[in-house]
Amino acid sequence: MPEVISLEVVSTKDAPQAIGPYSQAIKHNGMVFVSGQIPFNPATMSLVEGTIVDQTHQVLKNLSAILAASGTNFSNVLKTTVFLRDMNDFDEMNKVYGEYFTSHKPARATVQVARLPKDVAIEIELVAAY
């Protein structure tokens, strides 16, 4: 039988609550694995309408809140994955993304997907050190 490892569930009211059987993030062995975030306002749990710029800002604010609750920040992010509904939004998303990752540029993959939860335009997940 495998050994049980020590995991810490991260949860903050400053980011949207999970809408399924998952955690906002899990900490283990100096790493934090942050679940994909979509552009929900955590205060209202409603979708942020607007452009890809508006939605990307909200996603990154949500990620920032979860990172803070994990004891870390964007400067310790190792890898992100960006899921876009439309790759034509790449340039605008990338400009906003660059506002949050200024001096530190983590590894990243960006993919276009057929559909995202709640039919949003963007979702981002990440892995960071703490």
Protein topology:
Layout: E1 8-10, E2 25-28, E3 31-37, E4 40-41, E5 46-47, H1 52-69, E6 77-84, H2 90-100, E7 107-112, E8 122-129
Parallel strand pairs: 6-7
Antiparallel strand pairs: 1-2, 2-3, 3-8, 4-5, 6-8
Helix pairs in contact: 1-2
Summarize the structure in words.
The radius of gyration is 14 Å and the shape is globular. It has 130 residues and is an alpha+beta fold. It has a single domain, classed as 2-Layer Sandwich (60s Ribosomal Protein L30, Chain: A), CATH 3.30.1330.40. A six-stranded mixed β-sheet has the order 1-2-3-8-6-7, with helices on one face. Strands 4-5 form a two-stranded antiparallel sheet. The protein contains two helices and eight strands, in the order βββββαβαββ. It has helices at residues 52-69, 90-100, and strands spanning 8-10, 25-28, 31-37, 40-41, 46-47, 77-84, 107-112, 122-129. Strand 2 (25-28) and strand 3 (31-37) form a beta hairpin. Helices cover 22% and strands 31% of the residues.
Question: How many whole angstroms does the radius of gyration measure?
Answer: 14 Å
Number of helices: 2
Kindly report the spatial arrangement of strands forming the biggest sheet: 1-2-3-8-6-7
Per CATH, the superfamily is RutC-like
Structural class: alpha+beta
Strand content: 25-35%
Tag the structure with descriptive keywords.
130 residues, alpha+beta, 60s Ribosomal Protein L30, Chain: A, six-stranded mixed β-sheet, two-stranded antiparallel sheet, 22% helix, 31% strand, globular
Task: Please summarize what this structure is.
This protein has 130 residues and is of the alpha+beta class.
